[in-house]
Amino acid sequence: MQVLGFLAIIFGPIMEWIYRFIPNYGWALIVFTLLVNLVLLPLRIKQQKSTARMSAFQPKMQEIQKKYAKDKNRQQEELMKFQQEYGFSMTAGCMPMALNFLFIFGIIEVVYRPLQYILGVSQDVIAQMVEIANSTLGESLIATDYRVQSALINLVKSNGEAFSSVLGDKLADVQNFQMMFFGIDLGQTPLSSWPSIAIIIPILSVVTMIIVQVITMKMSGQEMSGSMKALPWIMSIMFGYIAFTIPTGFSLYYTVSNIASFIQSLIAKRIYDPEKVKAQVEAEIEAKRAEKKKKK
Q: What is the pTM of this model?
């Protein structure tokens, strides 16, 4: 997780900066999420263009696949030739998805380790805090547990004196760190705090994920068939499991991100409407064919 979450080194200071102006972890996460999506907007627009063009080229590609179904090498050659001729790539829309994937892991790291990335407490001090919690307060914390930093924050708030020797001037920052958002502790995992209203946020994150996936796929102009139709549901089930087993702060980030993504999809569709792109592509194909006939 830490390897994939290397972007936390960048996200942490940004979150810290936002938190200084908005001293509430939940609202800071929301502002940060909107900033991340603003950065991703040009890439989403580019993805919409690539997806819409590829959808328009699909009938011709299917013709090639059917024509050379028995000769896979020739099929690949013709598909590559077709892509080069019309200047599009089947993988062009993958970059925003890959970046979003990395952003998610970076966010998870920040949510897991607010002491380290937002409050600037070193890993050595955190290790000492775990020792104090276990030896002095009778806790059974594990330093590598992804919930340990949230647990330490709550312990510092109730037993500040026990940690004053290792935290020094950071003690007040940790004690004043606001992780409550409308009565929900964003540092707790929904299942560990069950029954609790905290379960609302991961449910919202899964519901908005399904809605956004289905709607944006339709707006992109792509037709899903076979196992691809089940993909949004499979991904939602996998994400649902993750959302209920990690700190609630991540689900808040993802819920807001889903809503922002939907708005971005509306903007991208307005710029590159699939029907208009399809008409342009058909015109390009006809122009290329006419040019070839003219040369012959």
A: 0.77
